[in-house]
């Protein structure tokens, strides 16, 4: 058990104020902690949510000292230098990771999901009377060869090279959710979680959700248990302290995997308002807050807002109905000194507007700082209009 790693150490209490201080610097949100480029941002956060393509850029821009080149620099890191890679990761969700983490993510979380996804595809095809596993393997190898030749391609372009990708089969025949699935759609998803393909450049602008595919960068095959330890250490360094429940939720692992990884890295137990928590070894010392107060406008699905399962220390429960959709996805949020106090949105004319829901301790200095952040955001967005993929009640109201 991980708690045994801390036997002999007095458990230290880490309160809300210190947790917010850690977040301010480690998540590059306080003014003095802002980053010089998207690689620094992704490295500090471990992963950027990539389900909504715009989130990646908005999350980076909110944390750059100079956000003017957010789009150009993030696109360079993703599609030219390949310093960042968009791929499936924890909880079977699309993230953007630093390239040096792709092998760790694949071994720690991708392998188990990939096995389930391939088995499910083969089962659904067999139930529908579609061709067997040998046929699918042949199509897969042909598609990967075609993709390697093209460099990047859409599913439609790959189907021009390998027509069998256009084959369709009925999923869940006779059920209320019956649907017609195309081999290309399901197969490319499986290849993604298997770490064989990654998302390439979008067909449109940086806000587009229509992506090309590319062959995944080569990476070593790691031992899954060692990879889990490496990923947990990286995340706990960036986001600790955290509870076991936080860790299980963020990784999507079984609790036994979480506990084994905590023990392997020698995580130290601490006491939080929610109960027992953990930090990495060497991170028990006090952390001072930033010298200046800070404000931030973070996008929907931002990795800070979505970083923990237990969020009361930075997001009051009574604010959640306005800020989350029905599936638990957070929308755009306004932050002041480490806590969520409201929401923001972009109107059709490009104006960035916000509303404060929690005004405790929020004075003119906070309102001025929030207005400055809105101006920064409006400045680098230019003519681009951003609508979150997962819309929340307050965001929809503000965006009218």
UniProtKB/TrEMBL annotation:
PANTHER family reported in the protein's UniProt record: LMO0824 PROTEIN, WINGED HELIX DNA-BINDING DOMAIN-CONTAINING PROTEIN
Protein name: Uncharacterized protein
Species of the source: Streptomyces lincolnensis
Phylogenetic lineage: Bacteria, Bacillati, Actinomycetota, Actinomycetes, Kitasatosporales
């Amino acid at each position: 058990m991980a708690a045994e790693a801390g036997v002999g150490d007095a458990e230290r209490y880490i309160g809300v104020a210190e947790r917010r201080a850690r977040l301010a610097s480690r998540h590059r949100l306080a003014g003095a902690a802002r980053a010089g480029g998207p690689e620094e941002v992704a490295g500090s956060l471990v992963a950027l949510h990539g389900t909504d393509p715009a989130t990646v850029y908005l999350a980076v821009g909110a944390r750059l000292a100079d956000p003017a080149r957010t789009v150009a620099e993030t696109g360079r890191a993703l599609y030219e230098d390949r310093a960042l890679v968009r791929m499936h990761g924890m909880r079977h969700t699309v993230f953007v990771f630093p390239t040096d983490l792709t092998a760790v993510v694949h071994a720690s979380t991708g392998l188990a999901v990939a096995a389930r996804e391939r088995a499910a595809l083969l089962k659904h095809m067999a139930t529908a009377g579609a061709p067997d596993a040998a046929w699918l393997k042949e199509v897969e190898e042909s598609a990967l060869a075609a993709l390697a030749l093209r460099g990047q391609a859409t599913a439609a372009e790959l189907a021009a090279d390998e027509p069998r990708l256009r084959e369709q089969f009925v999923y869940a025949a006779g059920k209320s959710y019956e649907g017609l699935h195309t081999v290309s759609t399901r197969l490319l998803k499986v290849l993604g979680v298997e770490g064989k393909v990654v998302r390439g450049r979008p067909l449109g602008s940086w806000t587009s959700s229509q992506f090309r595919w590319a062959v995944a960068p080569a990476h070593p095959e790691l031992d899954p248990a060692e990879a889990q330890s490496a990923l947990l250490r990286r995340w706990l360094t960036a986001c600790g302290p955290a509870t076991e429940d936080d860790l299980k939720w963020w990784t999507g692992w079984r609790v036994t995997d979480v506990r084994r990884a905590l023990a392997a890295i020698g995580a130290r137990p601490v006491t939080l308002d929610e109960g027992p928590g953990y930090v990495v070894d060497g991170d028990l010392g006090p952390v001072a807050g930033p010298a200046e107060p800070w404000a931030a406008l973070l996008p929907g699905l931002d990795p800070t807002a979505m970083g923990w399962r237990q969020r009361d220390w930075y997001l009051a429960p009574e604010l959640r109905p306005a800020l989350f959709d029905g599936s638990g996805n957070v929308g755009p949020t306004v932050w002041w000194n480490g806590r969520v106090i409201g929401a923001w949105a972009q109107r059709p004319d490009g104006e960035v507007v916000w509303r404060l829901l929690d005004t405790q301790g929020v004075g003119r200095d906070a309102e001025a700082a929030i207005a400055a952040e809105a101006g920064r955001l409006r400045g680098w967005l230019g003519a681009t209009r951003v609508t979150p993929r997962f819309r929340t009640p307050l965001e929809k109201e503000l965006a009218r």
